[in-house]
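Sample intake — SSD domain-containing protein
Collected from: Cyprinus carpio carpio
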Amino acid sequence: MFLLYLCLLQVLTGAQHEPGYCSFYEDCGLNPAVEGALIPPRVPCKDYRKAVNVTGDHYELFKSVCPMLAHGEGKTLACCSFRQLTALQSSLTLSKAVLIRCPSCADNFAHIHCATTCSPNQSQILKITKTANITQPAGMVKEAVVGYEAYVSTSFSDASFRSCKNVRIPATGGYAIATMCGRYGATLCTPQRWLDFQGDSSNGLAPLDINFKLLPDGQTAGLPPGAVLFAGTALNCNETTPTGGEACSCQDCEQSCPAVPQPPPLPEPFMIGRLDGVLVICIIVFSCIFLLLICYIERKISPKDVTCSDKASLATQEFLGSLFQTWGTIMARYPLIVLPVCLVVVLAFAVGIKDIELTTDPVQLWSAPQSRAMREKAFHDANFDPFYRTNQLILTAPDRPSHYYDSLLFGEQNFSGIISKDLIIELLELQQKIQAIEFWSDELNRTASLKDVCYAPLNPDNPSLTDCAVNSLPQYFQNSMDNLNAQVNMTELGVTKEVDWRDHFIYCVNSPLSFKDITALGMSCMADYGGPVFPFLAVGGYENEEYTTAEALILTFSLNNYARTDVKFKVAEEWERGFLEIVQEYQKNPNTNFTFAYMAERSLEDEINRTTAEDIPIFMISYAVIFLYIAVALGEYSSCKRILVDSKFLVGLGGILVVGCSVMASMGFYAWIGIPSSLVILQVVPFLVLAVGADNIFIFVLEYQRDMRRTGEKREEHIGRVLGNVAPSMLLCSLSESVCFFLGALSTMPAVKSFALYAALAVLMDFILQMTAFVALLSLDARRQDANRCEIACCVTVKTPHPSEPNQGVLLPLMKKYYAPALLNPVSRVLVMVVFLATFCACVFLLFHVKVGLNQELAMPSDSYMLDYFAYLYKYFEVGVPTYFITTKGFNFTSEEGINAVCSSVGCDQFSFTQKLRYATEYPERSYLAIPASSWVDDYIDWLNPGSKCCRIYTAGPNKGEFCPANESNIPQNGVLRPSVEEFNRFLPDFLSNRPDLQCPKGGLGAYDKAVVRDKETGEIIASRFMAYHTPLVNSQEFTAALEKARELAHNITMTMRNVTGTSQDFEVFPYTVTYVYYEQYLTIVNEGLFNIGVCLLPTFVVCCILLGMDFRSGFLNLLTIVMITVDTVGVMTLWGIDFNAVSLINLVTAVGISVEFVSHLTRSFALSIRPTKVERAKEATANMGSAVFAGVAMTNLPGIVVLALAKAQLIQIFFFRLNLVITLLGMAHGLIFLPVLLSFFGMLLRGKH
């Protein structure tokens, strides 16, 4: 009787936990408690019964879905019917689509759900907690299970979780576990949270609620009587599956990774003891030079010191002097013929300016056409669409207080002030206003809008506005105000609370690939254009993935990029103009609650052009100041009555015109022959030629004023004689500079090359015009002055005669009486040598610490909105620029060996293409790679795999290669699917055009449709690309290092892939992103700079030696001083924060030219002096030539340079004002202080008497 009672109780309660019994069996229909499910939520019927023996088709399906529970036909007991297995298979397929890359993970995941659904001991490992009545099609009402508690050992759950936590999604570079852990994402996911998500029916995927109770092995506390923990055998990810599946790849399983050698340590800095090695060497060198200087004893002069070199030098000077004297006399005698002829010649050259081509594209300016970066850019642009155009706002609300939100599902969360509903709505309104931009397009001959130019990854052929890729926080709500305002009560663990937009936001930023959140709202996280919005594209300024604490919102509109010749290029620019107008108007609105920065793709070029136009008046003022100075300084003012007679206003104007004509002639000539110019040339070349030309003008005019006309000498002969004295010195400088610049044209940088060519011809033309037109102009002015006629009013004469004594001016007496003696006394000489040599050694040390590069914000004017954008970008963006690793023609992707050499999933080579990229991301501080590359090869393999519901083909049997129905299983036993060549080529176009969805997330449309280029005739893959992401890069040094490391990695991959059978030896993998073409120059600019400066220094030595009659000592001292000026300039650049780049290189080349002016005139004057001692000769040269150089170079340049400080463009402020100020001051100091002292110690001895 007692036994009968127990049996009856068992039947009535159905709550016993015994081996061999089921708690539920058979499919009972759809769960009435689940709404908005993404797949049909089919639930089982409550049925306490013995496990059934599965046979026939039932067993075959069971073995396919749950092979780990199959023990042979007729020997296998299970608690699931055929219909249940079909539903389970459908549910598992969704997960397999992302987990199938790792067979052991997919097996463990299936094992969990097979155990709770089909285990013959089902009643022991779970307890039913909730049921519901469901009416069957026949009208019968059955009790269905809609919730249960499952008991699982932590050893099994932990091992299963470990096998899956590193499985990647190739399209995004992220982890699959992030899509399977709900609100926690990949970072915070744990075994418990992972299983909780699987058992949460609110996620739209689970058909019923499962409460997974995880307990340590052997623990019985908390278990119902008779219940046991499920403790199946979980596979490690580096193990093969019982069905023959291979171990997971390293990309998906850390245990499978081979021993990858650590990157070599960074080179240690050069040290000697504990001090910087370069500093120690500089100190030693300085000490040695100082000791040699102390030991140096000046030799006495003797007639024996006159050598053959001295005689040759004097002969050279006499020949050149005689030649220029004759030439000058002729030019002065026929000024009215000379001037028109010069004008005609200049006009013949200058007329070419009408065809001048100004290069404004930075790429064409700084990157050589045949450079590697330009070749790679050309390959990319020829095969792929140009990188899309970015239009972006980064918005903050610094004054908004943060608040805490007690979420039902996520607990207490700290929300920053900007993550508030009213600001999100305001952002949405701004976004919709921008999306609604319309304008008339002449190019399209109709009204154009965003959809005409937007980047629409999932509908590129005929996009609507909602197909356009717009990334922002409102996209988590599909840009719907209704979704944003949605509120609903939800009960969790007996607690009922309201859930709203905040719960949805928390969920979506942690699981952006979800089609349905786990809240009662049941909303999707996908953007309205169909793609995911990754949190780093929606918010910024957070730490440790605490997205609710973000300090910035990000709004990004992506447009297609077009070639400049494409009609849609102007349409895109016009849309961006409308974008900027709306944003700037919004920024001015006093009711705006945001503080923000913004940019459009066109902004960089717009701002550069704006500042160029605005700074043109600054350059005009600079030249006007220089002209005014020259006009005033050239005059000889003997008395107030003769001011208008003795002034040299017209001569100064003529000198300026000579400079202008030489520049115009140079520009016109090169325009004739098709060499483009640039804004740098327009800004720098006139300044350079003006410095050279003004110096020569001062030397010539001052020499004429100081020299008395000899008895019986005509005015023209006087001018000719003076020209004979000074023209060799002018020739020395001009020829040195011209040859210097012509050699500088050997540079591979287009901007440097064109600058050098324009400058060389301009300097040469300036010298020629000075020897012709200016001599003629001075002759006309001398006639006027001799006739005592006023300069402006030529008909007016004055009676006050010209003084009989030559006008010494102000500078010459001062320098002769005070400056030269003070400089060249014994104490000063030693002190000057010590100070300048110490400075030189210090600057050599600093030279090794100058930064190389040009930060892009420096190209902007100081008041540009782009400066705010760059500051916001560096502060708030959490990921760097995307970079593509591109393959060229010559690799066989269709062979099994080729596939394995590229992919990173199961069966792939451990050091394959994508595996190496993944290894590099483990050392982001060295590789500058943050996210592994997306791989179309891996996703294509998964797409082909019958385990997913994408493309199903038979891989064996009589129907091999044919379409495989979804109800048949044809999964390779080892999990490794490699299509044949025919299959590969046949289905690749379908994969690339397949839109991803819940059933098939591996579709290639959007992610890969533009990533593979095939030959239209042969089908061969001639180009493909794999996209990774750099770490955030904030300055040019990091951009350059990222390029260098990416190229090293790509070269390593190339060498490995060339070893694959059938690979062409010219096959190559190279990295590409839009910034590389700008920063490549900094990989070689140091060598380029040394070469350019070296070839510029060489002619200064050679020409000086030749024109001084093979005077090697003077040539060497001349060269040494110019080298010191150049080195000191680089040293000061380090101290003043001026980076070394192409712009500063142009200025350093200019520095060599200006240094020649400061140095060579004085060197020649010393060499030709006949004073008895070197000190006296140095005094004479300093007084006579130094005064002219000071007035002609230093005082000409300085006023014009100081005006440049008012420019808005930071490039002009830094590289023209600061750098040219440094060059001028250092040139003046070395030319007028150091060089006289140097010559007084080491100059040539007396050359004998003329």
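Post-analysis note: The chain is about 50% helix and 10% strand.
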